[in-house]
Design brief:
Helices cover about 50% and strands about 0% of the residues. The protein is mainly alpha-helical. It has a domain of about 100 residues: Recoverin, domain 1. A two-stranded antiparallel ribbon has the order 1-2. The termini are far apart. Keywords: Calcium, Cell membrane, Cell projection, Cytoplasm, Differentiation, Lipoprotein, Membrane, Metal-binding, Myristate, Nucleus, Protein kinase inhibitor. This is Calcineurin B homologous protein 3. One of its GO terms (molecular function) is protein kinase inhibitor activity. It comes from Tinamus guttatus (White-throated tinamou).
Length: about 170
């Protein structure tokens, strides 16, 4: 996708603001972003900015697919907190509850209902119709890939800061 001169200028201004006019950006510079301060997955977001993989300007289809898979692995591990290769209902509930905990308009059980519904949908997508006595253990990475098939991860997985004002630390 072509990048405009205005977009580059905006990116440069944001970089300078985040880095405090330094030539490099460090993890501690993210401490000054108020929108990240109380985000439950803050550490994972910051870590994503410091991923050491180089991005080639002219990547072939295989390299692009590998990059997409890497992004999905990163997202998968945000949910798979014990790193056992399966996102259980409990792990999924925990993440949904963390993400929705700051919303005063949601009832306490709403996050649980959202997580339960999403896990049921994942089971139907990945395991197909199940008998009443069957239990869906959780989402494997292969299941996760099935769920995300056809979804443009590049447009869905981005970070936007609404407030760039530096915050005072006491």
């Amino acid at each position: 996708t072509p990048v405009t001169a205005d977009q580059i200028e905006h990116l440069h201004r944001r970089f300078k603001q985040l880095s405090s006019e330094k030539p490099t950006l460090r993890k501690e510079h993210f401490d000054s972003i108020p929108d990240l301060e109380f985000n439950p997955i803050r550490c994972k977001i910051v870590q994503a900015f410091f991923d050491r993989r180089p991005i080639e300007p002219n990547m072939d289809e295989e390299q692009l697919e590998r990059l997409r898979t890497d992004k999905l692995k990163f997202l998968f591990h945000m949910y798979d907190s014990d790193r056992d290769g399966i996102i259980t209902l409990e792990e999924y509930r925990n993440v949904v509850e963390e993400l929705l905990s700051g919303n005063p308009h949601l009832e306490k059980g709403a996050a649980r209902s959202i997580a339960d519904g999403a896990m049921l949908e994942a089971a139907q997508t990945c395991a197909g119709p199940m008998d009443a006595d069957q239990v869906y253990e959780g989402i494997t990475f292969d299941d996760f890939l099935k769920i995300w098939r056809g979804i443009d991860i590049e447009t869905k997985m981005h970070v936007r800061f609404l407030n760039m004002e530096p915050m005072a630390h006491c």
